Amino acid sequence: MLVNMKKILEDAEKGGYAIGCINTPNVETLRAVIGAAEDLNVPIIIDHAQVHDSLIPIEEIGPKMVEYAKKAKVPVCVHLDHGSDYNFVMRAIRCGFTSIMYDLSALPFEENMAKLKEFTKIAHDLDITVEAELGIMTSTEEDSHGGVTTGWTHETIKKTFTDPEQAAEFARNTGVDALAVCFGTAHGIYAEPPILDIERVKAIRKAMPKETRVVMHGGSGVDADQVQAAISAGCSKINYYSYMAKACSKHVYEELEKKNGNAFWHEVQEDAYEFMRRYAREVLTVFKNGK
Ligand SMILES: [Zn+2]
């Protein structure tokens, strides 16, 4: 069932669990992620990142995402991840996306806020939910979503932390449905195991309007206990991708080595699909937070 993210995130926060938001840049990942959500009977957010458009254009994968969402047995939100330019956001809307992350976090605070306020009003008239971001989690485009990130240490991550009062002002002013904030995670691969500032999540949750959800990006690579502490502190949407994508490559590589590279491509694809479905099931089980 195709939905936007409003009700599924509202229910998640009330219920003390989080909804997974996973990039699906190919059909195997798309089937695996929706399959895992169906296995556990939980709603899911699937997303296409603007930086993945060089892998597959949104006009090719987007309609497939919408089609799979419609026939899924669980609520599925089709979301744009880190749309950073207006034209791209419009392309997502034309493809039938039900939710948009309009990421203008690279702009000065006031400008980010003014543009998101204007956009959110239009999006809500179209029944499309909106996510924004405060603070910079990436320094370059290549860093995000599976790119090669180096040097994410505790010291460099700390400089990105979100101020709760600023988050509250932004949410009140723009009316966004969800806000990605920084409290210890980063995109891509960590140089040292991340340490989340759970007190900051609580402070952000407390300061923001009740109807705005707190979002964690860079959920890959954070240990389950910390993820669950962040959920209990009020984080109801978690973006996840990099570690699953890397684990799948490693699995495929090992399987091919065992067979001396002797396999049909469709067998490799099917094996990757099965692996990711199992992997995503484990991730989504953590996000259920024991509920
Ligand atoms: Zn992100």
Automatic annotation (TrEMBL):
GO terms for molecular function: aldehyde-lyase activity; zinc ion binding. The keyword Metal-binding applies. Zn(2+) 2 binds at residues 103, 133. It holds the Pfam family F_bP_aldolase. Binds 2 Zn(2+) ions per subunit. One is catalytic and the other provides a structural contribution. InterPro entries: Aldolase_TIM, Class_II_FBP_aldolase, FBA_II. Keywords: Metal-binding, Zinc. Its cofactor is Zn(2+). Zn(2+) 1 binds at residues 82, 187, 217. The active site is at residue 81. GO terms for biological process: carbohydrate metabolic process. SUPFAM superfamilies: Aldolase. This is Class II fructose-bisphosphate aldolase.
